[in-house]
Amino acid sequence: GAGMAARAGAGRGAGRVAAAAGRGGVAAARAAVSAPPRGPAARLDDGKAKDLLAGVGAFILDCDGVVWRGDSVLPGVPETLAALRAAGKQLVFVTNNSTKSRAGYLGKFKSLGLDVKAEEIYSSSFAAAAYLQANKFPTDGSKKVYVVGEVGIGEELELAGIPYMGGPDDAGKTIDLSPGLRLDQDPDVGAVIVGFDRNINYHKIQYATLCIRENPGCEFIATNTDAVTHLTDAQEWAGNGSMVGAIKGSTQREPTVVGKPSSFMLDDVAQRFGLNKSEICMIGDRLDTDILF
Q1: Closest Cα to residue 221, out of 156, 159, 290, 291?
Q2: Helix (H), strand (E) at residue 68
Q3: Which of 66, 113, 172, 288 could bond to 62 as cystine, CB 3.0-4.6 Å?
Q4: Nearest 5°: CA angle at 140, between 135 and 143?
Q5: Distance separating alpha carbons of residues 88 and 82, to the nearest angstrom
């Protein structure tokens, strides 16, 4: 069991990195991000792995690039998860990919043969809805959300009872410029959520821009700002940072980021799962999101 946990942090060729997210964890992660490149990290020996397991009550695991890549489970993952469960460790699966809701991710886990419970999953689409709930966003229809993103965000907003528009419904919309053309935004949009969107278009960018710039108090929320994502196991693909960046450029506004490495997501995960931050170990494949988280 200890050896498998060590492999979860060290890799087996998957480039995974583990770091405690408790006392001193953030400072250490920031130092690691800014430090000059070093050689490959040393693998944990059995003694250090046992010490790590003894001091950790919960493991938060990234999904893309750690549990799977594209539609393939990475080697050793099923055995590692089973060993951690057998050791009595709490597991939470966190992903910055907002294209699916928690229910959608549960389906993916099951399709890959992984035994994971719905309540163990925390996606950035869910984080966006949780953020609005935490900030008392109206559910009486007086305000609504405009979504740049795919079905996952809308599904989580529906579960939270928050009205929304956009998303997949605006996937095929185009703007045919003509003299005097004007696009009017809904003045009741009180928040714009930008998540990964394979069907992003100029209509979505312009509509989101108008809402953020012209609707008083409209919030600009990003599920994440990841530079790349793992859509397939063949290569890295442009991530949500490219979508968020387009709207940052047109609005000259910085978004509130609710996914990794935001403090909101970590605080909400700890509160929902009853976890002590000093006893959490993060397993991820990116220093700038997972380990900084």
Answers
A1: 156
A2: strand 68-69
A3: 66
A4: 65
A5: 10
pLDDT at 106: 95
**Residue written as token pair 């935004």:** 185
What is the reported pTM?
0.80
Reduce the DSSP state of residue 45 to 3 states and report it.
coil
The catalytic residues are 62, 64
Beta bridge partners of 222: 194, 257
End-to-end CA distance of the chain: 25
Which own/partner contact pairs does 138-145 have at CB distance under 8 Å and 24+ positions apart? 138/190, 139/163, 142/188, 143/188, 143/189, 143/190, 143/191, 144/186, 144/188, 144/189, 144/190, 145/189, 145/190, 145/191, 145/192, 145/193
Cα separation of 182 and 223, whole Å? 29
Tell me which residue of 195, 47, 44, 207 sits closest to 125, measured CA to CA: 195
Average pLDDT across each block of 10 residues of the chain; the chain has 293 residues. List them in order: 40 40 43 57 81 88 88 93 94 93 94 93 95 97 97 97 98 94 97 97 98 98 92 88 98 96 87 87 75 60
Q: In the beta sheet, which residues pair with residue 110?
A: none
Looking at residue 52, its pLDDT comes to: 82
CA 25 to chain centre: 19
Residue 82 tokens, joined: 């089973």
On whether the CB atoms of residues 43 and 18 are closer than 8 A, the answer is no
Give me 117's structure tokens.
């419970």
Helices (H), the chain: 2-10, 25-34, 46-55, 77-86, 102-111, 124-134, 151-160, 202-214, 240-251, 263-273
Q: Would you state the structure tokens that stand for residue 150, as one six-digit string?
A: 């795919």
**Per-residue pLDDT, 206:** 98
Torsion-angle region of 116 (φ positive above 0: left; ψ -120 to 50: alpha; else: beta)? beta
Report the pLDDT value the prediction gives residue 70, as an integer from 0 to 100. Answer: 81
